Amino acid sequence: MSVDLPVARRVTPLDPVELDPAVLGHPASNIASIPPLAAQWASLDLREILSRPAAFLSVSQSNSLYRPGGVQYAEGHAFRGSLPATVQAVQAARRASNFVSFAWIGYSVFRDSYPGTDFDRAQYASWTGHIDATPEQIAWDNALVPELAELVEPGDSTLDEKALQTAFVGTDLPLELARKRVEVVVITGIHTDWCIEGNARAARDHGLLPIVIGDATGTQHPDQEAATFERINNYFAPVISSATFVELVTR
After folding, report:
1. Rounded CA gap, 187 and 28, in Å?
2. Reading across the β-sheet that carries 54-59, which strands appear in turn?
3. Which pairing describes strands 54-59 and 99-106: parallel, antiparallel, or unpaired?
4. Most buried by CB count within 10 Å: which residue of 12, 42, 216, 246?
5. For the whole model, what pTM was predicted?
6. How far apart are CA 128 and CA 239, in angstroms?
7. H-helix or E-strand containing 12?
8. Do 203 and 55 touch, CB atoms closer than 8 A?
């Protein structure tokens, strides 16, 4: 008598095929693309600013980007340095007593259930409309990558972006920052030219002082990073490296 064995169900939205970093050919870090501080930021004492009540925002650093089978894994972020740079920055912020808020902000590319305009629905469908993913696979794709999940502590905020490119609309983030009297927000995550720039702009409009950790972020393609850093650094927020951040908050 034959016995039918259970078939293992794939937990990932796409086939979990490992990328070869040698074939990708991406730089292991984008530090070389971070520009010198713009003149207006160079006149500031960033060490003093980073001693004020501060929040650490990790944006969209999910399995989707860093794990085989993730919808955005093909962009190669697992090999481009943003994850270890974020870990280094989080650990330094934890040691600095003025960091009173840590927010782990998810960004799902599966948005069938999100309220949306005609533009939103067309754009979201182009991302994942061709993927037949189960709720369990979507939940895996959205989950915070394990290297960061193990750094989450009681009292941290965990939330999902509901707007196109910012966590300051439709979430509890503004209230969290206001109640804790946060002045400075340090931002890491993906993508630099989308959610990171969007949150830096929104933070400025909310009267906050955003600082972007450049090598803890990444654009879809590495060749887009230099222009993005220049734009953010010139107009919205200082862009610094994780090593510089660690040095500035170490007291």
Report:
1. 20
2. 157-160, 99-106, 54-59, 184-190, 209-218, 239-240
3. parallel
4. 216
5. 0.95
6. 31
7. none
8. no
Q: Which tokens sit at 110?
A: 């599966």
Q: Give the pLDDT of residue 251.
A: 83
Cα–Cα separations (whole angstroms), residue 99 to 41, 106, 198: 21, 20, 22
Q: What is the mean pLDDT of residues 54-71?
A: 98
The answer to whether residue 38 scores a pLDDT higher than 80 is: yes
The number of residues in the chain equals: 251
Q: Which amino acid is at 165?
A: Q
Quote the CA–CA distance of 97 and 52 in Å, as a whole number. Answer: 10
Question: 3-state class of 184 per DSSP?
Answer: strand
Structure tokens at 227: 């222009």
Q: Render pLDDT for 72-82 as a digit per residue (tens, 0 to 9).
A: 999 999 999 99
Query: Cα–Cα distance between 247 and 241 in angstroms, integer?
Result: 10
Phi and psi torsions of 155, nearest 5°: 95, -15
Q: What is the DSSP letter of 194?
A: I
